[in-house]
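Bug report (template v2)

What were you trying to do?
Predict the complex of my protein with 3-isopropylmalic acid.

What happened?
Run completed; filing so the output is reviewed.

Input:
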Amino acid sequence: MELKITCIPGDGIGPEIVGEARKVLDKVAKCYGHRIQYTNILMGGASIDVHGIPLTEEAVETAKAADAVLMGSIGGDTTTSPWYKLPPNQRPEAGLLAIRKALNLFANLRPAILYEELAKACPLREEISAHGFDMLIMRELTGGLYFGERKTIEENGIRKATDTLVYDENEIRRIAIKGFDIAKKRRKKVTSVDKANVLDSSRLWRSVVEEVAKDYPEVTLEHMLVDNCAMQLVKDPAQFDVILTENMFGDILSDEASMVTGSIGMLASASLNDTKFGLYEPSHGSAPDIAGKNIANPIATVLSAAMMLRFTFDLDKEADAVEAAVKQVLKEGYRTSDIMSEGCKKVSCTQMGDLLAERI
Amino acid sequence: MELKITCIPGDGIGPEIVGEARKVLDKVAKCYGHRIQYTNILMGGASIDVHGIPLTEEAVETAKAADAVLMGSIGGDTTTSPWYKLPPNQRPEAGLLAIRKALNLFANLRPAILYEELAKACPLREEISAHGFDMLIMRELTGGLYFGERKTIEENGIRKATDTLVYDENEIRRIAIKGFDIAKKRRKKVTSVDKANVLDSSRLWRSVVEEVAKDYPEVTLEHMLVDNCAMQLVKDPAQFDVILTENMFGDILSDEASMVTGSIGMLASASLNDTKFGLYEPSHGSAPDIAGKNIANPIATVLSAAMMLRFTFDLDKEADAVEAAVKQVLKEGYRTSDIMSEGCKKVSCTQMGDLLAERI
Ligand SMILES: CC(C)[C@H](C(=O)O)[C@@H](O)C(=O)O
Ligand SMILES: CC(C)[C@H](C(=O)O)[C@@H](O)C(=O)O
């Protein structure tokens, strides 16, 4: 099979971790007889440095011409980097928001998994983490407060800022369908999170989700208020299978959930549209403080590449092989420094990539 | 001194816990030579049952005529209670939002404290909770998404819902001042939480907070993105002193923080306006499942009454006495069932109230 992949190395540790993910993908291609055609685009700070803006039209076109995008991370230190002297809509993060919108990537899948071998890193007490957990946050990614109208005005000398949270039923329906579809293949439970006791958009969210649920009699639907969900993630994360929620709540809850696993360096994500196209990136950030030191953990990016093989290319066997390789190196005791613990063998970013590629 | 207090027993366990808090207040009055004049008003479901609406004009007037309001909790089971068949703006919670707005209670103070005696209930690993933590969430309470314009319309047969997040600089400034004022009396650190990489309202928030910070050179200000804050609360809650944030973020983060303590039945809150007036209520809900069973934990309400003594009446000595009584009963091993653990003595709601009153 011919795989057309656009890479966004990005900023900070991005180029290093994308490099290791490519190493693993190349090994997969070799073993399973595929051919990968890579293109590279600039985004975020890397694009600002060259083009003055965080994402160019051409970059978007290049991404569109591919089957999938593999991204590292973007952004720098917000207090010291010159990128953050620019107006907000020209900063590195604006590139990420722009590509999500341009490619219509409305469905953001963020698994939060407690790996048995890394259970010690979980910040929760052993009684709570003992049985592990494995949830998937399905976050709406192209609507809500992120993309509603916003303005800052001065009225009688008083500054006033407005953001708008808008959802129409079609935007809610398509993400709900994605959520139920994936729950059907998992433990068959959807927790839809909203603030229906306050927001109109949440009340519409709730009723559309209930309409969609009717087509999935085998999936259990429960509604949870966002404040309660923030509590339940800490109290009993094992209760969740698929969490379905809007953009801003999903931003907050998915980060909370990833920290609850204790090993954010292991967490992949996928952002999908209505076709097989997807953008795949680690859940963690660009970690500018450790960039270029060859100590970053490439596993989240490698696992994002595995999600790409599964969702965009339907290469389940290959995806399984990558995930198995990750489990294998963990079992063998290899750790990058972010997940290092006593008795394990510390390896660099490139060594981890080599170990993973060898095990494919 | 003459204390005019309006009580809102409310729904669920509300009447029981307010009863015990009054018991403690009465003992304080007796010991320290004060006179308390109570009035009662209905709010939430209790008001719907009598008046058909969750809050009447007269109730608001009664509250306004008092020095402070002591509230239990409002709301019922959202799936079984007839209150939730009403349109959203007539449900129990609408009464709470209405009184916050009517009394201009823009500053919501929610302490999240790990009590040494209850450290075992903390869901975090001992390495993280060992040194305890004691933070205060200062949540803006009368602006943002909660009170912006909202509407649901149908356009070409497509339902579309809109909520609006608005802040002007005055709303931000007054809550920031409250935050810095209280930080000055604590560990002198303010963490202002926003989503300035996306929202205009957050960018205005950040600049006004920075302006206010100039008047408090002794207080350290740091900015944190809301998604990162949701992570940090789990990773290292001890890093926080005062968290200053807008309404919706404050709703989510304060609930997360309260669960991180593991003993939400212990957490008080105060909602203040620009005068000494305040509404005091426990951070927890109405727990309809255990209502009327005399097993609720009245401590959060008792500690809310202590906050009232301190903030509205400037009775620091009396507030100290109430807080000392709480520490004392915990030390003596008395526990309501929600915080019960091996080797402790289980007591009912009324017994806990008696024990606390005796120790004043
Ligand atoms: C960088 C930022 C704009 C982005 C978001 O808020 O969506 C990030 O936090 C994420 O979750 O991917
Ligand atoms: C009941 C609800 C409207 C309320 C809120 O969201 O403010 C509650 O969650 C709270 O935090 O006091």
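What did the reviewer find?
The pocket of 3-isopropylmalic acid (ligand 1) is lined by residues A 93, 96-97, 251; B 197-198, 227 (CB under 6 Å). The domain at 1-103+277-360 of chain B is CATH 3.40.718.10 (Isopropylmalate Dehydrogenase).
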